[in-house]
């Protein structure tokens, strides 16, 4: 059995995302030996926030790993792709919305070891997009108020991002 460890942190500067893998390893004292010889999967995710402060979650469809769990929309970063570009591409493919990289605000990241791979996932927020989000891959969507996010079953990697996002939204409302 693999022991899972999840972590999330607030990232103060967007520049850190360009080399976020190295930064995460340095920040948490991780080594390749510690992570093991597992495959490293880089995934970019977004918290789309509507005018009422609700966050969009997508439910993983049947047939995919972790089917039925709710997650922040996004997807894998391809080789040679900037994380922001990958996220914009994934949001269009999955939800049919256009997001400009300049409209993404870096919030934090999660680092989580699953049984067969280690996942690094930066999370951005955005309040600006073109189009109406719809599940283009058969996934259900839900607009969720921040205080209800913990009521949705989510993958282990997403869970530590909930308090980071909730705190950010609370600070934004009271600014």
Features:
175 residues; alpha+beta; Nucleoside Triphosphate Pyrophosphohydrolase; five-stranded mixed sheet; 4 helices; 8 strands; 22% helix; globular; disordered N terminus; 8-oxo-dGDP phosphatase activity; hydrolase; mutator protein
How would you sum up this structure, described in words?
- A five-stranded mixed beta sheet has the order 1-6-7-2-5, with helices on both faces. Strands 4-3-8 form a three-stranded antiparallel beta sheet, with no helix packed on it.
- It has one domain: Nucleoside Triphosphate Pyrophosphohydrolase (Alpha-Beta Complex), CATH 3.90.79.10.
- It contains four helices and eight strands; from the N terminus they run E-H-H-E-E-E-E-H-E-E-E-H.
- With 175 residues, it is an alpha+beta fold.
- Residues 39-167 form the Nudix hydrolase domain.
């Amino acid at each position: 059995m693999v022991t899972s460890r999840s972590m999330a942190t607030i990232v103060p500067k967007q520049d850190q995302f360009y080399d976020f893998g190295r930064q995460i390893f340095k920040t948490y004292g991780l080594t390749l030996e510690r992570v093991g010889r597992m495959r490293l999967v880089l995934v970019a995710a977004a918290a789309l926030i509507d005018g009422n402060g609700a966050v969009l979650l997508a439910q993983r469809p049947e047939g995919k790993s972790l089917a039925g769990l709710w997650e922040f929309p996004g997807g894998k970063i391809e080789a040679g792709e900037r994380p922001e570009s990958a996220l914009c591409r994934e949001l269009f493919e999955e939800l049919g919305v256009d997001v400009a990289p300049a409209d993404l605000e870096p919030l934090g990241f999660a680092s989580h070891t699953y049984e067969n791979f280690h996942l690094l996932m930066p999370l951005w927020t955005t309040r600006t997009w073109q189009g109406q989000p719809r599940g283009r891959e058969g996934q259900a969507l839900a607009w969720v108020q921040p205080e209800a996010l913990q009521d949705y079953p989510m993958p282990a990697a997403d869970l530590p991002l909930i308090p980071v996002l909730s705190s950010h939204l609370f600070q934004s409302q009271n600014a």
